[in-house]
Input
Amino acid sequence: MTRDESTDAIAWDELDAHQAYVHLEREIGLLLRRSRAISARLAAELHPDLDGAAYGLLALLQDAGPQRASDLVTRLGLDKSTVSRQVNSLVALGLVDRTADPEDGRALVLTPSAEGSARLARIREARRARWEADMAGWPVEDVARLAELLGRFNLLREAREAREAQAQDS
Output
């Protein structure tokens, strides 16, 4: 069964806060379910032995730059053992490099390897092209607005997770 935009439309003039959050929860839930399936597929495209969750970690390293494993734990809201397992897998597959932290030689920072960056770039370009084709009928302003709103939402989540991590450390 496919969704029909006309039946999912919100009567904006009758919208109340509760309905807006119910609709948001439903749409984000659907997005997250699809995202997990897509991450598994993208991870397999990146390397056949890569776990789906590790794809997001590699993408974060590419976007955010060198990170300590502890930074990834905080940013992703995962436990240390999960991040450690994913990092070890990425390193073993040659997709991530570990190097000494220039600010603290006792610590290690993680960066995508040249091979990891190249593979990730190919997959991201293919994914971007699919979105462009799928959303060809959308005005570019709507695409830009969606990206802006998702960015704001992601920053909100990151800030909340950082506060929760600090509270746990206290």
